[in-house]
Amino acid sequence: MSKVAAELQYSVEHEWIARDGAGPATIGVSAVAADALGDIVYVDLPEAGSAVTAGETCGEIESTKSVSDLYSPVTGMVTEVNTAAVEDPAVINTDPYGAGWLFKVEVASEGPLLSAEEYAAANGGEL
Amino acid sequence: MTENHTALYGEHRKAGASFTDFGGWQMPLKYSSELAEHHAVRNAAGLFDLSHMGEVWVTGPDAAAFLDYALAGKLSAVAVGKAKYSLICNVDGGIVDDLISYRLADERFLVVPNAGNAATVAGLLAERAASFNVVVEDASAETSLVAVQGPNAQAILLSLVPAEQHSLVTEMKYYAAGEVAITVNGTTNPLLVARTGYTGEDGFEIYVPNADAAALWQALLENGADQGLIPAGLASRDSLRLEAGMPLYGNELSIEGHAYSAGLGPVVSLAKESDFIGKAALAAIKEAGDGVSSGRKLVGLKGAGRRAARGHYTVLKDGATIGEVTSGQPSPTLGYPVAMAYVDVEHATVGTLLDVDLRGKAEPFEVVALPFYKRQK
User: Fold this and answer.
1) Mind listing the pLDDT tens digit for each residue in B334-344?
2) How many domains are there within chain B?
3) What are the residue ranges spanned by the domains of chain A?
């Protein structure tokens, strides 16, 4: 069963968000989503400096089998993108909550977020 | 639709497979990583459960003449011990299924349709057999099929074959088949082995009664482990066949399509003396040139960027729609996106530069010859 990291919050679209004090939030996709997608081969991320809106698409993730939209769980300004994940998207499969993070956002407002427990219960993940 | 399980379902569960519905069957999509499974087949070996496919036996004095009538190919010209890829068509020339037939004796053939079409094909064969002296027997429900595919497939199979029968395997040509003694758990049984596959690699397909399937599966995995054999799911099977330029029924082939536009003209034997179902329609289509000089034909596309074209995406030339993608994904072996698509014949020449609408953005692709990948012999 796919791992759900206990210390993070989640959107219904399977993004996770880590908020570290007042700094930018880090965003990625859950292991549940990465496992369901299969081997990820391409990721299109919003550019640093661009605005993202909670609940709206801001990029896409492509696996060998399918393409999925990437949704921003928050509204704000993108401060940084993980170019290493763009170069080698396999890291999103192998370490979705760590080296496979996707982008950072200076958050203006959050969309609806789930706790790890709620997300795991809704998606059959393992805490 | 009822959810069918193969006799190997328990093995897949034990191995941690994730499942997908395919033709009404719950089949392993992948066990770990579909990319790892793909590369294993290209570089070592992979083990596939294909038990969802059909097995229809055609036996009797008219077996060859009957298949000449029921199928588009000339099955009477197939030598005993050989296989032939063919099509079963409707009267309009539409493709009901693509299938492989094995001639195992003068008067005995095994016809192997796709999973989703197995019942239809078995029914049609029985119907078309009415005026022939043959028995059509659908053994799909009792028969399992496992495939060992990849450069190490022969060595792995030989590990289960008594030494005195090794030459039956080593001398078996591509697209040949025959009974080979296979030893599992100390018991030796003759099984039908064919040197066929759907991966673009060397490999064998082994027909086995359901009751013996799990033991054979386990023995192959155990003996093949040191040869790099791993179980492989339908995700890798799809990427392997796409690289090998092989059509998939439901994607490239359909009842609305026909052999000529699919590039399968040579599979249709208009020259055979006997009539066959679809012959008149196919002769007219060939005469009219549909799929060759008019209409659309199946081509290979190679992506210039990293993003892949997928089934049903629109193919464009200077912004105008000129075709539709049938299958596509990033090629794990080649490292660039590959796709098959039906495009208007005037844009189907190798080297033509086209675009594919990738979710709202036109991305450049080039028409290339099929297959995308061909193994070194």
Assistant:
1) 999 999 999 99
2) 2
3) 9-108
Tens digits of per-residue pLDDT, B280-335? 999 999 999 999 999 999 999 999 998 999 999 999 999 999 999 999 999 999 99
Pairwise CB contact (< 8 Å): B35 & A64: yes
Per-residue pLDDT reduced to its tens digit, B35-62: 999 999 999 999 999 999 999 999 999 9
Does residue A126 belong to the interface with chain B, where contact is any CB pair within 8 Å?
no
HEC string for chain A? CCECCCCCEECCCCEEEECCCCCCEEEEECHHHHHHHCCEEEEECCCCCCEECCCCEEEEEEECCCEEEEECCEEEEEEEECHHHHHCCHHHHHCCCCCCCCEEEEEEEECCCECHHHHHHHHCCEC
**Residue A75: closest CA among A46, A97, A101:** A46
| CATH number reported for the structural domain that contains residue B163 in this entry | 3.30.1360.120
- pLDDT of residue B1 exceeding 60, the answer is no
Best mutation target among B329, B331, B361 (most A Cβ atoms within 10 Å) is B329
Q: Which chain A residue is nearest to residue B18, measuring alpha carbons?
A: A36
Residues of B in contact with A59 (CB under 8 A): none
Three-state DSSP state, B53: coil
Contact B73, B175 (CB under 8 A): no
What are the structure tokens assigned to B210, written together?
A: 């359901």
Handedness of CA B52, B88, B84, B197 (dihedral sign): negative
Chain B, nearest residue to A43 by Cα? B307
ipTM over 0.85: no
Does residue B373 contact residue B333 with C-beta atoms inside 8 Å? yes
State the DSSP H helix or E strand holding residue B217, giving kind and residue range, or none if neither: helix B210-224
Compute, in degrees rounded to 10, the torsion defined by CA atoms A50, A54, A60, A61: 120
Nearest CB partner across the interface for A39, out of B34, B306, B308:
B34
At B2 the pLDDT is 62
Within 8 A of B35 by CB-CB distance, chain A residues are 39, 64
In this complex, the residue of A39, A42, A60 whose CB is nearest that of residue B33 is A39
Asked whether the beta carbons of A121 and A10 are under 8 A apart, the reply is: no
Report how far residue A83's alpha carbon sits from residue B74's, in angstroms, rounded to the nearest whole number: 57
Which residue of chain A has the CA closest to B330?
A64
Q: Which of B201, B220, B242 is the last residue of a domain?
A: B242
Residue of chain A nearest B35, judged by CA positions: A39
CATH fold of A9-108 reads OB fold (Dihydrolipoamide Acetyltransferase, E2P) (2.40.50)
Domain stop point among B242, B262, B286: B242
